[in-house]
Amino acid sequence: VTGMSGAAATLDGEAPEHSPPCSPSYDVTGKNKVVTVDGVRVKLQIWDTAGQERFRSVTHAYYRDAQALLLLYDITNKSSFDNIRAWLTEIHEYAQRDVVIMLLGNKADVSSERVIRSEDGETLAREYGVPFMETSAKTGMNVELAFLAIAKELKYRALWQPDGPSFQIRDFVESQKKRPSCCSVL
Ligand SMILES: Nc1nc2c(ncn2[C@@H]2O[C@H](COP(=O)(O)OP(=O)(O)OP(=O)(O)O)[C@@H](O)[C@H]2O)c(=O)[nH]1
């Protein structure tokens, strides 16, 4: 739930016949996830720091080469939110300069135990210029969207052309994200 997950992407060319262009499809096999965006298969290799956050030298090795990083906190746990600033400082120092970062406030389904307001996540994300949304691994809320947004951004960068269409990951996330129901807002 908390900590950091990273992703590196490879573009595999055309989508298979069965996945319609413009409609994302997913194939999760172990820690690889294939997201088809606009007819291009983006293979994400995903890893998770899995409780090793205390061993900083280990986590540096994980994220040094990542193309994207998902920073997760738990909306029911203040210290997980407070840790995010430390992560962002570390990333600034050790990660790739142009790494795609996304801030996620997880456990949005347990509104009764919420201690971090959505606005607090939004404010932090704005300060660092990163996209933000709340997620629930339990209900699936915004989970696929997080991977889709990253896949779109990495595909956009890989296939960028001066006269091609532009893509803004923050605008995309803002337009697509679901918000938890009204009653979960503090
Ligand atoms: N209600 C709810 N529970 C969740 C959600 N996501 C994870 N959990 C639960 O939270 C607990 C901790 O999840 P983990 O994924 O192990 O958390 P973690 O912080 O990554 O832990 P480490 O892998 O040890 O770093 C588990 O019992 C999960 O089932 C969620 O979105 N909603």
UniProtKB/TrEMBL annotation:
The keyword GTP-binding is annotated on this UniProt entry: yes
List locations, semicolon-separated: Endomembrane system
Q: Which Gene3D superfamilies match?
A: P-loop containing nucleotide triphosphate hydrolases
Give one GO molecular function term: GTP binding
In residue numbers, the region (Disordered) covers 1-26
Sorted alphabetically, the keyword list is: GTP-binding, Lipoprotein, Nucleotide-binding, Prenylation
Q: Which PROSITE patterns match?
A: RAB, RAS, RHO
- Is Lipoprotein included in the keywords of this UniProt record? yes
GO cellular component terms, semicolon-separated: endomembrane system
Chief location of this protein within or outside the cell: membrane
Q: Which residues form a coiled coil?
A: none
Q: How does it sit in the membrane?
A: Lipid-anchor
| Family listed | Belongs to the small GTPase superfamily. Rab family.
What protein is this chain from?
RAB37, member RAS onco family
